[in-house]
Amino acid sequence: MKALVYTGVKELSYMDRPMPQPQDDEVLVRVMASGICGSDMHAYLGHDARRPAPLTLGHEAAGVVVGGPDDGRRVTINPLVACQACGLCDTGRENLCARRQIISMPPRQGAFADYVTMPPRNLITVPDHTPLTHAALAEPIACGWHGVRLGRGVLTCDLSSARTVVIGGGAIGVGAALSLAAQGVGDITLIEPNETRRAHLADIAGFEVCGPDEPAMPAEGSADIVIDGVGFATTRASASTIARAGGVIVHIGLGEATGGLDIRRMTLQEITFIGTYTYTARDFAETAAAIFDGRLGKLDWIETRPLSKGHRAFKDIRAGHVPAPKVILTPEHDA
Amino acid sequence: MKALVYTGVKELSYMDRPMPQPQDDEVLVRVMASGICGSDMHAYLGHDARRPAPLTLGHEAAGVVVGGPDDGRRVTINPLVACQACGLCDTGRENLCARRQIISMPPRQGAFADYVTMPPRNLITVPDHTPLTHAALAEPIACGWHGVRLGRGVLTCDLSSARTVVIGGGAIGVGAALSLAAQGVGDITLIEPNETRRAHLADIAGFEVCGPDEPAMPAEGSADIVIDGVGFATTRASASTIARAGGVIVHIGLGEATGGLDIRRMTLQEITFIGTYTYTARDFAETAAAIFDGRLGKLDWIETRPLSKGHRAFKDIRAGHVPAPKVILTPEHDA
Q1: N or C: which end of chain B has fewer CB within 10 A?
Q2: How confident is the model at residue B278 (pLDDT cuts 50, 70, 90)?
Q3: Higher-scoring residue by pLDDT: B173, B335
Q4: How far apart are CA A284 and CA A276, in angstroms?
Q5: Average pLDDT, whole number, for chain B?
Q6: In this complex, do B270 and A269 lie within 8 Å of one another by their Cβ atoms?
Q7: Tens of pLDDT along A191-224?
Q8: A265: chain B residues, CB-CB within 8 Å
Q9: Residue B291: which of B35, B97, B11, B76 has the closest Cα?
Q10: pLDDT of residue B253
């Protein structure tokens, strides 16, 4: 089969790879759509020691089951494979399982390939009316869906009356904003500094978009929930300024390891900061269902490119030439 | 009356002051016990712009109502006076009311004095068997009680099986540790770097005490709840290391405004950080009840000194010469 393989720092090669062999508890999935994540970019730049070359990246995928009783079943893939035996798995926090694996990180190859293998429990059936390019968004949007669920658990006001702010107009931020809307929030402002990206986002229904210097920028102490979908010191500084007394910061980004939070203000104003990582199986299923029934909107903010041109896509994203929050690679399957 | 007045940086004067006059909604309380808080020390050192000299400090007080239908009633004082009209007050978060006042901060004088005035709703009756020096601990312990209540709200494991760590053996830390025990936690380790203080704390029932370099120091990723009762960058660094995946950091301290948190770890391990400030009326009442019925222990970790010798007490605390986590000043009332 063909795969887009990370072969060294800033090097991706579209090349032949052996067909993956499903283990006893796995099935083979023919990949039809596979999104590029910020963590793929991170690995491509050589910044992720957990993803050494050579490795097939990609973990936001949808496709079709090949062989076995489910042959032909259209599915979206939850890429997190947890142990199902530890205390965290037992309490529905599989995303924190110490033995969790994810495709695109050894020992599991990723989904920038014609085929990938997965346990059937990680597959969710996609209805015929949903394009697989949309179904592949379940993974990135589930990160925001999960964060919203954690944030609402801490909030003492009703979600329908909450004022909310999302920092960052990438797929994580857009997914978080759409998740807020789908979970019942009416007042959502997304902050995005890049004007080109802002223009691209303005057409998405469900939330307002503004730049950091525009009049619509949320005031200090104005938001019940702030979702930081970027995770740099500067975005955390904004988040801890914008959050209101008793409010919540939901922190999804991994931009910088430390700094930025105004901890004195957070203490005096009793602001909660929730570090959030990926999603649970429940979040993934809920997100997929919301994609299928239209609660997450038209999902037309993606750009699709052939998998064979994947390296070009990485370069364009890195150069800031891609206004779409998400690029989805589509394998050609020897077409 | 006599009062211990903050007259300038590092200056406290035991002097005559006019008797306070209760407003329409207030009663006069004869102060019998008034604890020294870290925030009093902060003001005394000239570091709190909200507490300009001249000012009577002190906000951890118990005493006896003078005059009116409640004359002679023994009470402990909730020093936070909230507006009772805003959305935060309406939802039981009076501690975050933007119009809240506290005695010892203008326009309200503090309780290092023979008398103080308070609205009756801020007074809780102290039973005869409870010394007023113990009743005055309701305020500092309520900070920990509140923090534990916020922390348990986020925790997904049962509180009785939780492993917990408290950083700092001052009154906030000790109060938090005792609050954990009173709310059902069995496994509590308090970390205190000062050996003299540790020796003093070792006799308190309900929790273990250890130094940062001792074998009993909690391991990385071991605690369900970490309570930082200090709030320096170094203590926050410890907290974000010790907290386990899915765990909670409850942050009460105001030592330094920024820094220390390992935000990357908190994001990947889904650790929640709760900034907490003081206590609600409910927390204060619950803490007082727990003092009265013995759930917070013998409370023999205090040292009492006469109010007239208050300046000496401030100097001794600052010099590190006071092993007790709390010094309580007792007015002599012209004795």
Answers
A1: C
A2: very high
A3: B173
A4: 14
A5: 96
A6: no
A7: 999 998 999 999 999 999 999 999 999 999 999 9
A8: 257, 275
A9: B76
A10: 84
Residue carrying the six token digits 């869906």: A145
Identify which of B291, B327, B304, B307 has the alpha carbon closest to the alpha carbon of residue B75: B291
Asked if residue A12 lies in contact with residue A24, where contact means CB atoms within 8 angstroms, the answer is: no
The predicted structure's pLDDT at residue B99: 96
- In this prediction, residue B335 carries a pLDDT of 57
- Residues in chain A within 8 Å Cβ distance of B280: none
ipTM for this prediction: 0.94
Judging contacts by C-beta atoms under 8 Å, the chain B residues touching residue A245 are: 88, 93, 96, 98
Q: Give pLDDT, residue B334.
A: 73
* Of the candidates B323, B319, B330, the residue with the CA atom closest to the CA atom of residue B300: B323
Residue of A nearest to B280 (CA): A270
Compute the C-alpha angle B24/B27/B28, nearest 5°.
130
Cα–Cα distance, A228 to A230 (Å, whole number): 5
Non-local CB neighbours of B294 within 8 Å, separated by 6+ positions: none
Contact B235, B253 (CB under 8 A): yes
Nearest residue in chain A measured CA to CA from B98: A245
Q: Does a cis peptide bond (omega within 30 degrees of 0) precede residue A18? A: no
Q: Which residues of A touch B (CB under 8 A)?
A: 87-88, 91, 93, 95-96, 98, 150, 153-154, 156-157, 231, 236, 245-246, 251-254, 256-277
Q: Pick the residue with more confidence: B254 or B286?
A: B286
Task: Assign 3-state DSSP to chain A and report helix, strand, coil percentages, each to 5.
Answer: 30, 25, 45
The CATH code of the domain at B141-275 is 3.40.50.720
Can you tell me the distance from the alpha carbon of A156 to that of A81, in angstroms, rounded to the nearest whole number?
Answer: 34
All CATH 3.90.180.10 domain ranges of chain A, comma separated, are: 2-137+299-330
Of A229, A179, A224, nearest in space to A206 by CA: A179
pTM of the model: 0.95
**Residue B302 distance to chain A (closest CA, Å):** 26
Query: Do residues B314 and A311 touch, judged by C-beta distance below 8 A?
Result: no
Please give the structure tokens belonging to residue B74: 């023994």
Class of the domain covering B2-137+299-330: alpha beta
DSSP state, residue A18: P
Q: From CA B200, how far away is CA B38, in angstroms rounded?
A: 19
Q: Please tell me the distance from the alpha carbon of residue B144 to that of residue B287, in angstroms, as a whole number.
A: 9
* Average of per-residue pLDDT across B104-108: 96
A236 contacts: CB under 8 Å, gap ≥ 6: A228, A249, A251, A259, A260, A261, B263
Band (pLDDT 50/70/90 cuts) for residue A143 is: very high
Tokens of B315: 């100097």
Q: Are A191 and A168 in contact (CB under 8 A)?
A: yes
Please judge whether A96 and B270 are an interchain contact, meaning their C-beta atoms are less than 8 angstroms apart: yes
Question: CB within 8 A of A310, min separation 6: which ones?
Answer: A4, A12, A14, A36, A112, A329
Q: Given this model, what pLDDT does residue A335 score?
A: 56
Contacts of B236 in chain A (CB under 8 A): 263
Q: For the residues A265-294, what does the mean pLDDT come to? A: 97
Residue B197: other Cβ atoms inside 10 A:
22
Which of A96, A260, A267 is the closest to B245 by Cβ?
Answer: A96
pLDDT band at B172; cut points 50, 70, 90 = very high
Q: Which residues belong to CATH 3.40.50.720 in chain B?
A: 141-275
Alpha helices per DSSP H over A28-169 = 38-44, 87-90, 132-135, 138-154
